[in-house]
Amino acid sequence: MHRKKGFRMAFIVFVCSLLSLTIAVPGTFATKGQAATTHSISSAQVKKVADNYLKKHANLYRLKKDLTDLKHVTTIRTKTASYVRYQETINNRPVFTKQVTVTVNSKGKAQLIVSDYTPYKEVDSIKSKLSAKVVESKALQGIGVKVKDRWAPTSQKYGYTIHDGKAIPVYRIVSHTKKPFGAWETYVHAENGNVLKKKNLNQQVTGKGKIFKPNPLESYGATSSFTDNSDADSTALTAQLKSVPLLGLNGSGYLKGPYVTISSKAKTYSSTNTFNYTRANNSFEDVMVYYHIDTIQRYIQSLSFTNINNRSIKANVNANSDDNSFYSPSTKALTFGTGGVDDAEDAGIITHEYGHSIQDNQVPGFGNSSEGGAMGEGFGDFLGATYEDATSTSSYGKACVGEWDAVAYSSDDPPCLRRLDEKKVYPDDVEGEPHADGEIWSQALYDMASAFGRDTATKLVLQSHWSLTPNATFSDGYKAILAADASLYGNSHKDKITSIFAARGIK
Predict the structure, then answer these.
(1) Directed axis angle between helix 434-452 and helix 454-465, to 10°?
(2) d(CA 148, CA 507)
(3) Model pTM?
(4) How far, in Å, CA of 292 to CA of 283, rounded?
(5) Do the Cβ atoms of 262 and 254 come closer than 8 Å?
(6) Half-sphere exposure of 444 (CA within 13 A, CB side)
(7) For 280-324, how does the pLDDT look when each residue is reduced to its tens digit (9 = 90+)?
(8) 81 near 104, Cβ under 8 Å?
(9) Which GO terms describe its biological process (predicted)?
(10) How far is the CA of 113 from the CAs of 17, 63, 88, 499, in angstroms?
(11) Angle at 201 between CA 102 and CA 195, to 5 degrees
């Protein structure tokens, strides 16, 4: 929770075997001034050109000379070239994902061959095939869901996969499931029911949207007269919107991915995964939360931590009218309020709250002591401030977190939820209020980032959390950071860490 001034707050990638080949063949192109066209020859003639070329070069592509296991799929014709596509087959059944294309230029010459064709030594024989019902059950078991979890019918197709020179009879199943959401492609052995391979076809959709990055004051880079004005749009604020990719969307059309699931009254949806809104639209905050949480989790993983809060956290956006946002250890979810400036319009606030979920994930029940609670608030401010610093293209707002959020209650320049350079010292400046006392802890962490760089400081802090307990003190936290430095960097930062914390009265 953050307190505010009196509030509690393709190029297509082909996955081929080592035997797959992509070979460009010289061809004849239309010269300058000529009208390039393939309509002077028929589709049948185009296919004949492709067939003849493949037969002539069958050894090069390791094809059968008569092409009997290549089934013609389509011939696509354009003004400049034609494209003949074949499917590799066994016993007139598809070898899944194995295709060959021949590009025929405007003069009727084979110009390019792209081949996934994979030879095999034997075909695995089976006595009987599983029924459709059993196959679907095996596929769903492999995903870890039940029949009732489907949101659309399941499709099945019989064919083969090739592994280590053997053709294996399989069913390719596509199951549309609610939890986990996706269109799951599963390959099930046609006789014994073993799941040989599975993947979520919707897993890696990249969308796009517009956000504040990290907030309009920092991106503008100077003092401004930006005002909330009851969530209204303005030319100045709209000018601060930045277009960003939205990674990891599950393809459902909603803002759901591997690291965050948006829950909001806006029910933000896009069939094209394009989420471009201005701040007057409540969906804008949904995009803000998705982007910034996804980005900070990917950053944590880039530091080699793949086991810290690596989950799709539920974020309730614009969920209450208070000037208050919080993480709930009981529901493991985030909630963002709309009092003053909508909290979810400021990346520093979003990241601060995510910091609480990180600590709860690493040390369940963290912050039970007064100093532990202050460390939690201080870590959230450190995470938010360093994220803002790294995201901003200006130096405005350094050592400050939540500038845009703070315009509702601060007349400072820049306005800040809290600062990380207040020079507070333990125990003289302890007030017994976790947000205020957190400024002692956050400055020590922020000073480490200034001394060692954001990446090293963040690694030290995250590594140190695992040493802590729910009732840990400032002294415990300091010693845990020294232990983290010993394990990560062989004590190379020990003297500077000691000096930094001594300046805050912590030893």
Answers:
(1) 130
(2) 57
(3) 0.67
(4) 15
(5) yes
(6) 32
(7) 999 999 999 999 999 999 999 999 998 899 999 999 999 988 888
(8) yes
(9) proteolysis
(10) 16, 13, 15, 65
(11) 100
